[in-house]
Amino acid sequence: MNIALTLSRSRDAAIISVLGIVLMITFLFSLTVGAVSIPIGDVVIILLKRVGLMSSVEVNSMHDVVMNTIRLPRILLTLLIGGALGVSGAALQGLFRNPLVEPGIIGVSGGSASAVVLMIVFGGVVSLPTEGWAFDLLLPVVAFAGGVVATFLVLRLSSDAGRTNIAVLVLVGVAMNALCGALIGLSIFFADENQLRTFTFWTLGDLGGATWNKLIVAGPILIVAPVLLLFHTRALNAMALGEAEAYHMGVDVERTKLMVILLSALGVGVSVSMSGMIGFIGLVIPHLIRILFHPDNRLVLPASILGGALLLILADIVARTVVMPSELPIGVVTALIGAPFFMGLLLKAKKKNEL
Amino acid sequence: MYTASNLSLHIGKRPVLNDVSLMLEPGKFTAVVGANGAGKSTLLRLLANELKPTAGQVSINGKPIQSYAARELSKVRAVLPQHSQVPFAFSVEQIVRLGRHAHRTMSTVDDAIINDVMALAGVEDFRGRTYLTLSGGEKQRVQFARVLAQVWDETVYPRYILLDEPTASLDIAQQQHIFSVARQVRERNIGVLAIVHDLNQAVQFADHLYFLKGGKVVAAGEARDVFTKSNIEETFCCRVNLYHDPCNNCPYIIPERPSLHAHTHADFPLNGNSDFQNLKLV
Lengths: 355, 282
Hints:
The complex is a heterodimer of chains A (355) and B (282).
Chain A: H1 2-32, H2 40-50, H3 61-95, H4 108-122, H5 132-158, E1 159-160, E2 163-164, H6 166-190, H7 193-204, H8 212-229, H9 233-239, H10 243-248, H11 253-275, H12 281-292, H13 297-321, H14 330-351
Antiparallel strand pairs in A: 1-2
Chain B: E1 2-11, E2 14-24, E3 29-34, H1 40-47, E4 55-60, E5 63-64, H2 70-76, E6 77-80, H3 92-97, H4 107-121, H5 136-150, E7 159-164, H6 172-184, E8 190-195, H7 199-205, E9 208-213, E10 216-222, H8 223-226, H9 229-236, E11 240-245, E12 250-255
Parallel strand pairs in B: 3-8, 3-9, 6-7, 7-8
Antiparallel strand pairs in B: 1-2, 1-4, 4-5, 9-10, 11-12
Helix pairs in contact in B: 4-5
């Protein structure tokens, strides 16, 4: 049995490695496709040149420009956002002991989106920057603030003496989302043509606005928050039995709750500020991992980072290529790819009586 | 020693527990019995430090319970709830292994402990199965193994397990199995406290017995000494007859069928004598 257990841990390592390799290949492939198709050889050379290698080799200058100014920042951002959404969903599902929880239900996406939309439409009135570098910098801050405020309101209203009531939480979450929707609607009412176009961006998600500036601001947060979440996997496993039980087993429950909610709100809030609301990944990727493998969070969380990144990059490839030179909204594509696949897996799991 | 001294808990103005003192000795099985709503589960939650008392103090091995960090406390006492719902498809072994959460022991140590407790709880045959597919009795045995794994280490200090009606909704074979394992683990310097629903089981397995009524201790002591007709009738407001079972060499009760004229407290004849009526078993 010791062998069986060691095997299961090394099997986890193998799963993570395979996902990592697949993600790497998909990442490189996604850099080759688009309005200008770039051969894989050039992609690799340009990447190596960026890190200071092979600087003497010449590549097609248009390929170089497309890669460096458009495609690379976009796909890096896609990768980070997919990972942050996947792992936040996994952590929140674990924390709330409810496989139906997605970041949206605790109000973080709605709070972020409505804060950002309010800033786009009314920011100028209170002399906040409305474009340029300062705007790029402020956007994730506002999104994060909106996400955290909404999340804490939902938590506060659904907790009593430090214990969160899940049934109340879902209801408060619904109310919070309705409130956020109303704030967004209100903003649209006062918005001009230009601002209206950005509204579509928020509701359906769009990765097209990625720049190096945005990546420099958002990148570190989108790396740090998911990595810090990985430190709570063991506590989340214990929480699967219930909060009181987790406390009996030695988990600092309130600290775990606070950290997981804060880090998830950080990851999702910043993602929403960069790309608008991209649903589905946070809900479905952790499920896929649990159904395909097992529900130990020491596997589910890291695998959700890789799986979320993988699904979002794949969806982005489809979004960029099927209606070239135009683009499909990314949220539409993630659902179109993910939903049927997910339904198939649910059917399979139902037959095996594992749901 | 696990002690509760003069515990009281008021929810709003209503006293749920009133001046309850209790002592749980390592190597002994202590059972708490009482009617529904007597405050048994509340007492257990206070003992587990899940609730804070309005007045009074809980100490473990001479140290006030609130001075333990969550992790340290978990190495001294483990708790088995009545039911445990698990929302994800964990395997049996994964659940049992959660008991090792707070311990930073070598994996070989953990593996040995997991094997021991699974064998003792009788769950090793389905260690690879999904918890969600188990029957109620199997689930409770798995949770019991998880609780044991938490306090199985050989330490210099005694450890304790608190069981909240561990056999609710189990069949009699499963009930006897859980209680006999609970008795067995006393040998490892573990003190066992269980809320027990069935009085006959309480006296069959417990060393010490506490009768709880309306948030107060009515009687406490060596199980056989305090298992009297009068203590039981007072605690449960129900007429019972006390017999002796020669097979287990143990007293047992059978409650009387209430007559059509409902009893009130006033016409309840409570005498303090424990009069064993030795009847032949049919």
